[in-house]
Amino acid sequence: MSDRSCAEIFGKVFTILAEHPTEERMAIARKVWHECQECEFTPDQMFADEALVVLGLARLKEDPRHPEHGDVWLYGPEAELSLDDDRSPAVGR
What we know:
alpha+beta; single chain
C-alpha cells in the first residue's frame, strides 16, 4: 500500500512540474525521476503519463518485437533509446 501511495505522490509532483514546463523544471523532473527509481513501484502506477511526456520522461512507441501489443510506454530519460536497448523500461498498454 505504501508503494502505491508513494507512486501517487511522485505522480502529483510530475504533474505540477508539467503545468509550466521550463528547462529548469525539466531538469528538476529528471532529478526527481532518479529518486523515484529507489521506490518499489512501476512508472505506470503514478498515473502521470501525460505529465511525463511533457517533461521528456515518457513516450509511446510500437514495439517492433511484439507489434500485436501495439504501442508501449517507454519511461525515463532513456525513453529516447530504442526498444532493442534493455536499459529502456517498457510497459505495455
